[in-house]
Task: structure prediction
Amino acid sequence: MIPTKRARRVVAALAVPAILLTAAACGSDDGSSSSGPLAAVSGKPGEQPTIEFDEDAAAGKTSVEVLTEGDGAEVKQGDMLGMDVIGKTTGEQSDLVNTWMTQDGQPTTSDETPRPQLVTQAGVESALPEAITEPLIGTQVGSRVKVEGTAGELLGETADAVGLDKDQGMVWVFDINVAIDPTSSATGEQAPVEEGMPEVVAEGQEPATITIPDGDAPAELREQTLIEGDGAEVLAGHTLFVQYTGVNWEDGEKFDSSWDRDGGASFQIGAGQVISGWDETLVGKHVGDRVLMVLPPDKAYGEAGNASIPGNSTLVFVVDIIGVA
Result:
């Protein structure tokens, strides 16, 4: 399905990747009310749920129901969550957000490729408003959770921004697949760097210190696993959670680090969402790995460069893989 103008405004307002959007909802309740829930949800976790609205129900205060209880770690305030999500509003059958489907109505997963996840922080204003994810705190990874309420309570001022009636009912169904502590990093003894590779000191919750060796930058991509983790293997299509620091080989100056922000970084790996050197290097690694990469320009930003990165720059990254979904 082709996104409507409102759908695109929702994507911009909520910072939800466009691939997750199918179509926007419109209309509102007729004002009638009942004491029951807004909608019934059927289906097993891991499969796309079916949401059926009660036409006689009216939205009230935000409520949460654990439909299926998982047995994983407890979700904590600020955790980075990787989730399958459907969001719907009353008065319209199409989905506001749906990670199971692409914009043109095709499944987002296959036997070979993991499904892209919606990534947001629990109880923090991030990819989704705080009010939508705050009820997930205290639930467990592996759970399917339904959150109901009004667009006004769950979206706040965003409801006005995207043209939704604040009294309109809204239902979100979350399959919580992973919860990552945004302050976590790779742990274990770090291997000595190979000859000609930059030295790396990475301690605590601070950007890595990367010291460039004397001599010319390598013409080909070089990489080394400095700490070997024992977690899941990274597959193409996985949503990857990382901490990283990047410097320019030419002057050794840091141009970016996830540690300078409030949480780690996340993206779909092996899908062209990041520079090619990351896709090429990180697929096949494992959760818990610390990876050192030296990327020549053709594996980074090429002749054009990017923002503060000049064209034809060789870039050095230290990446801690802290989770996959």
